[in-house]
Amino acid sequence: MNKQEIKDKIANKCYAKVEFLKLEIKGLDKTTPHFAYTQEMIDGLISFKERELELWNYINYLNETYGGK
User: Fold this and answer.
1) What angle do CA 17, 22, 23 make, to 5 degrees?
2) Which of 36, 42, 60, 61 has the fewest CB atoms within 10 Å of its CB?
3) Dihedrals φ, ψ of 24, to 5°?
4) What is residue 36's predicted lDDT score, i.e. its pLDDT?
């Protein structure tokens, strides 16, 4: 596998992860608390997913900027 193929695989993985995280966050925004699932827990999950989204966006940025070097 050459550097361009690796860069493309990383970009594809980042894209898939970012899109999935966006869907998860959108779904959590619509979630209502029920039983032992409190609003605080939902907010914590949203916060965690947003940080993870930030991380994957940064990984993608690094791949695009420095991936071929």
Assistant:
1) 100
2) 36
3) -60, -45
4) 85
How far is 17 from 30, CA to CA, in rounded Å? 20
Residue (of 26, 21, 13) closest to 59 by Cα position: 13
| Dist. CA 69–CA 67, nearest whole Å | 6
Helix (H, G, I), strand (E, B) or coil at 34: strand
pLDDT in tens, 5-58: 999 999 999 999 999 999 999 999 999 999 888 999 999 999 999 999 999 999
d(CA 58, CA 18): 11
Where helices occur in the chain by DSSP H, the ranges are: 3-30, 39-66
DSSP state of 31: -
